[in-house]
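debug: dumping io for the single-chain case to check the tokenizer round-trip. Nothing else runs in this session.
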Amino acid sequence: SLKRAGREFSGRRGARVLGVTNAIFEINRYEIDSGRAFSDLDLADNAEVIIIGSKVREALFKPGEQALGALIDFNNRPFRVIGVLHNYERFWGTYNTLDWKNEIAFVPVTTMATKVQRSDRLSFLNLKATDISLLRETVDAVSNVLAQQHRGIIDFNFRTNEEQLASFASTKAS
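debug: decoded output
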């Protein structure tokens, strides 16, 4: 969980803290409202810095209180807040379908590997094809690289937006 000054954020899905590179902002369309993204130095030094979602900010800080530069506790370690993400809203009735984007925090992937998980195993890898016509070719190329890295053991799988859209379309048609 994420904690600060007697306050705690756990969210509906728990405190989702992901180790990422700055590519997450383009791939998953996140915007930083205040502060900054990770620097090359943050990644190289396994820096204890964090970028928080708007719901995390709301839970850990009082209205009007400055989040940037403050320390919050993650995994019993102090992390300095360097960015706050945009608040995302798209309502379905009274339910904000984008709250999951607000209930998240990011730390450098290198920090997550060395100081939090103490393992360089990735849970997932987000990629973006430069052109939809290259999607299948991109998936095949990445699959080949991963198979080589994993010594021929296929202990990974792929999920593409193309597959998600097809699933959504078939559900909607039902």
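debug: round-trip ok. Strands lie at 2-4, 7-9, 16-20, 32-35, 49-52, 71-74, 77-85, 91-92, 95-96, 104-108.
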